[in-house]
Amino acid sequence: MSKLYLMTTIINRNLSKKYSNFFDEEDLKVMFITLGSGTASDDVLDYLGLEDTEKAVVFTVLEKEIWKSVKKGLQKKLQIDAPGGGISFIVPLSSIGGMKTLQFLTAGQEFVKEEESELKATDHELIVVIANQGYIELVMDAARGAGAYGGTVIHAKGTGMEQAEKFMGVSLASEKEMIFIVAQKQQKNDIMKSIMEKAGMDSKAKSVVFSLPVTDTAGLRLIETDNEDEVE
């Protein structure tokens, strides 16, 4: 059975078109691209052969067998291991917010759905919501209604929307908001369900939702301690 991963690729901004074309050739039709900035010092940049710190960050979902092919292409065709090449890594998805989300994220890939996975000894999950631009409050109202405390939003441009529209029968905007919500594991299902019901694919937000396991956190203890005190 297949397993899904979120692949994150961080490269120099001027290489984004080259990489997105390569991913498309590998049948990764749906991608989300945003801009970023590196934080390395000038000495480190010189050592690595990097000309600047302007980055493109590409997110896409793929299954493990496809990752093996993509990794080989990144190394041999795009020379990602060379100085200034970039980095690409995968993180396992622990759950997917419904069949429509699965179909959307894996458009163009042959994928067989299996049971949700879960890493042991993890107390938190990162919920990732990808919604049409302009509907952050709709998403966050739904999330807060199920116990979420807040989220972080970045703007991204989606590619491969035409591919997804063919079988989903809905119009999808290319301008996207990516919302990252860290939640306690026992809250995850309620939050994802609330977002799917109130801001999901049947709403104007057209949100897709999935989650990633978080192995450790810093900064959430105060909130959780307050909640425990209230219960006591």
Tell me what the structure shows.
The protein is α+β, with helices and mostly antiparallel strands and 232 residues long. It folds into 2 domains: 4-92, Alpha-Beta Plaits; 97-221, 2-Layer Sandwich (Alpha-Beta Plaits). It is 35% helix and 29% strand. It contains 8 helices and 9 strands. It has helices at 16-25, 42-48, 64-76, 99-105, 136-145, 161-168, 185-199, 221-231, and strands at 4-12, 31-37, 54-63, 87-92, 95-96, 124-132, 152-159, 175-184, 208-214. A 9-stranded antiparallel β-sheet has the order 4-1-3-2-7-8-6-9-5. The longest helix is centred in the C-terminal third of the chain and has 15 residues, at 185-199. The protein is globular, with a radius of gyration of 18 Å. The termini are far apart. Residues 228-232 have low confidence and may be disordered.
